[in-house]
Amino acid sequence: VPCSVCYTANRPAVLMIPGKYTCPTGWNTEYYGYLMTAHYGHKSESLYSCVDAGLETFPGSGANNNGLLFYNVEIANHASLCPPYDCSGKELTCVVCSK
Predict the structure, then answer these.
(1) Checking DSSP bridges between strand 49-52 and strand 28-37, what pairing results, if any?
(2) Residue 26: what pLDDT?
């Protein structure tokens, strides 16, 4: 997975908001996508990352190098938390904003 570092010369504040795909009023959207992390069963440490919905790959990057695998973060089966919406098993979105 190609990585990016968000550098904004004139907007020094950058934040990632999980569970959203738009920025608050007054903030600029750098990109939006899906919240991802390592599998809970893996023994490596991992952070949550906002992976761009327009994800690009490198040619020839299909090799298995036994690296860390990204998995989408999904809402657990707690339908009572989401009425009137069916949210169980849905992938969480995220947005990276700057100001």
Answers:
(1) antiparallel
(2) 94
